[in-house]
Amino acid sequence: MEQVFNKLVRDKIPDKIKSNGEVAVTRVLDDDEYRKELFKKLLEEANEVINSSSKEESIEELADVLEVIKSIGELNNFSLENIIDAANKKRLSRGGFKKRMFLESTRRKNEE
Predict the structure, then answer these.
(1) Contact status, residue 45 vs residue 65, Cβ threshold 8 Å
(2) How far apart, in whole angstroms, are the C-alpha atoms of residue 52 and residue 49?
């Protein structure tokens, strides 16, 4: 029975499929297809983080998100260090999320 996946997978997945006695039908994506599939994979992995039910599962899913982020960076010719530097600069200028601040609304002072 054929199972259709049509999604980006990690490099060693076809070998694992083969070692299970199955045939993996694959192709190499061009840059545009790869970019599109990485963005889809980022959303897929982010949803898996949201739906994780244990600390261990959360760590594994966050690791998957990080791997996708690294791949998007490499495709765009920047490194994880570049991404971390940008995050640090943004944290310095705008802050992080440690205060758990939730913005409900804004209004002009003279509208009180």
Answers:
(1) yes
(2) 5
Residue with tokens 């992995």: 45
The pLDDT, as a whole number, for residue 95 is 97
Q: How far apart are CA 98 and CA 83, in angstroms?
A: 20
pLDDT tens for residues 57-84? 999 999 999 999 999 999 999 999 999 9
- Nearest CA-CA partner of 61 in 47, 72, 71: 47
CA dist., res. 68 & res. 31, Å (int): 15
CA pair distance 28, 78, nearest whole angstrom: 22
| Contact of 38 with 76, CB cutoff 8 Å | no
Query: What residues in the chain have per-residue pLDDT under 50?
Result: none
Start-to-end CA span in the chain (Å): 67
Q: How far, rounded to the nearest angstrom, does the alpha carbon of residue 54 sit from its chain's CA centroid?
A: 19
